[in-house]
Every structure is written in structure tokens, then in C-alpha cells.
Amino acid sequence: MRAIVSTLTLASLLAFGATVATAQPAAYTGPSQTPQAGSHGSYSGPSNVPLMTVKQLLDTGRDDQHARLQGRIVSHDGGDNYSFEDATGRIAVEIDDKDFPAGQTVSAEQRVELLGEFDKGLRKTEFEVDRITLLR
Predict the structure, then answer these.
(1) Where is this region: Disordered (predicted)?
(2) Phi, then psi, of 64 in degrees rounded to 5
(3) Where do the structural domains in the chain lie, given as residue ranges?
(4) Which residues face 67 on adjacent strands?
(5) Distance in angstroms (rounded) separating the CA atoms of residues 105 and 77
(6) Could you give the 3-state DSSP secondary structure of residue 76?
(7) CATH of 51-134 among 3.40.30.10, 2.40.50.200, 2.160.10.10, 3.30.420.40
(8) What is the pTM for the complete model shown?
(9) What would the pLDDT profile of 6-56 be if each residue is shown by its tens digit?
(10) Residue 30 CA to chain centroid, in angstroms?
């Protein structure tokens, strides 16, 4: 019985290690060209979430308010932190690798629409991205 448990434990650890070894961090220009396992489709119809400018969001946005922004991701600031800008200003944004469009790269010149939630804190204000859509 002990040998069976040890064998199962070893097999589990090897499987976990193989999964971790194949995961690739996304570069600023977007996630890996390999589709992510378990990725889901997303809704692409009309939305009641307001389209705002960076200035409007910073001036009048409420904590936890949902919004859409259109502009460019202009820099990767480390980890999940990026800077986003439109014609009215710049804001810090948090983007998980899984929120980049699967199989597509995003450059600093590419116009995008960000759908997410405004996080207005005492020390830090940022926009937490739920979805990125490439604009033409």
C-alpha cells in the first residue's frame, strides 16, 4: 500500500512539474502564440458599461466602477502592471496574462479597448482589466 501511495505521489509531482515547466510568461507584446488550455470565448455584443476617457475616469470615477477605455498600452511596468494612455491622459492598469487576446500580440502602437473595473484607493489608483479587444 505504501508503495502505491509513493508511486501516485511521485506521478502527481511529475505531472505538476511538467505543467509548471511548460508555462511561459507573457511578454509585453502579448501572451504566447500557443493557445491557452481552457480558454473561453467571450461576449462581443453591445454593452451598457460606459465608454470613458482616462481623464473622465480619474476625475469622476468611483471605486469598483466598471468602465471601458480606448487607447494604447504604452509600457510594461513589471509583473501585471502596465501604463495605458488615450488623448486625455495616462493611467496605471493591471492586466493578467490570461486577459490578453489569445494568439494575438499587442504592441505599444496597437489601439485597444479595455473592459474592467476602476480601483480607487488611498495610495494607489489603477484600472483592473478583465478583457482586451484589439481595435482597427
Answers:
(1) 29-49
(2) 70, 15
(3) 51-134
(4) 116
(5) 17
(6) strand
(7) 2.40.50.200
(8) 0.68
(9) 444 444 444 444 444 434 334 355 433 334 444 455 566 667 889 999 999
(10) 10
